[in-house]
Amino acid sequence: MANEHPEGSIILDTVENVVGYLKQYSVWPTTFGLACCAIEMMAIVSPDTDISRFGGERFSATPRQADLMIVAGRVSQKMAPVVRQVYDQMAEPKWVISMGACASSGGMFNNYAIVQGVDHIVPVDVYLPGCPPRPQMLLNAVITLHQQIKGEHLFGSTRKAAARAAEEAALKAVPTHEMKGLLA
Ligand code: SF4
User: Fold this and answer.
1) Entry pTM
2) Among 9, 53, 70, 72, which residue's beta carbon has the most beta carbons within 10 A?
3) What is the pLDDT of residue 10?
4) At 170, phi and psi to the nearest 5?
5) Distance in Å, CA 119 to ligand 1 centroid
């Protein structure tokens, strides 16, 4: 494992490995769905997919006892402040999976009513393509997130710095109504 800690490196790396292993299998998602993708998200607890094998079946009805937001569905402009409030109320450290084309980019809803990518309002850790993504694809996204979580450093501000950088990049992004796309 890469060592960024000059002192006590062996002990710190061992603790980080153990804590990372425990953290990745104790992620609690929020009970939170916005559109049709949410139906596929619900199926992740079914016997076919069975996210409980990875410790994630405990969906929390309150954001204060959750650390994973699965944005399942298109985000309307009216819903955006609510999504952000739920994110702000979640426990630290917290992660976000953007599920489906609509959450990641607005999808087919290229209009003024839909946020053109949820990364405009919250930092995203894993983007999941598809319309709709199948529950197996969501499970794969969760496993990808687990690998990211396991690699996160216990000490230092790596995670917070990355989230802050992602938020600043989102704030500086060109507004959708100013994008020319193929018409430029
Ligand atoms: S990506 Fe497809 S399934 Fe998901 S919310 Fe959009 S339209 Fe619905």
Assistant:
1) 0.82
2) 70
3) 63
4) -65, -40
5) 17
End-to-end CA distance of the chain: 46
Kindly report the protein residue whose alpha carbon is nearest to atom 4 of ligand 1: 37
Amino acid, single-letter form, for residue 182: L
**DSSP code of 45?**
G
Q: Kindly report the number of other CB atoms within 10 A of residue 92's CB atom.
A: 8
CB 133 within 8 A of CB 106: no
Task: Tell me the C-alpha distance between 59 and 66, whole Å.
Answer: 8
Residue nearest to atom 5 of ligand 1 (CA): 73
Residue pLDDT, tens place only, 86-124: 999 999 889 999 999 999 999 999 888 999 889 888 989
Spacing of C-alpha 34 from chain mean position:
15
Q: Which residues are CB-neighbours of 23 under 8 A, at least 6 positions away? A: 149, 150, 152
Strand order through the sheet with 126-128: 68-72, 95-99, 126-128
Amino acid identity of residue 97, one-letter, is: I
Distance from Cα 133 to the centre of ligand 1, integer Å: 8
d(C-alpha 9, C-alpha 154), whole Å: 13
Specify whether the CB–CB gap between 146 and 59 falls below 8 A.
no
* C-alpha–C-alpha distance, residues 12 and 100, integer Å: 38
C-alpha–C-alpha distance, residues 56 and 75, integer Å:
24
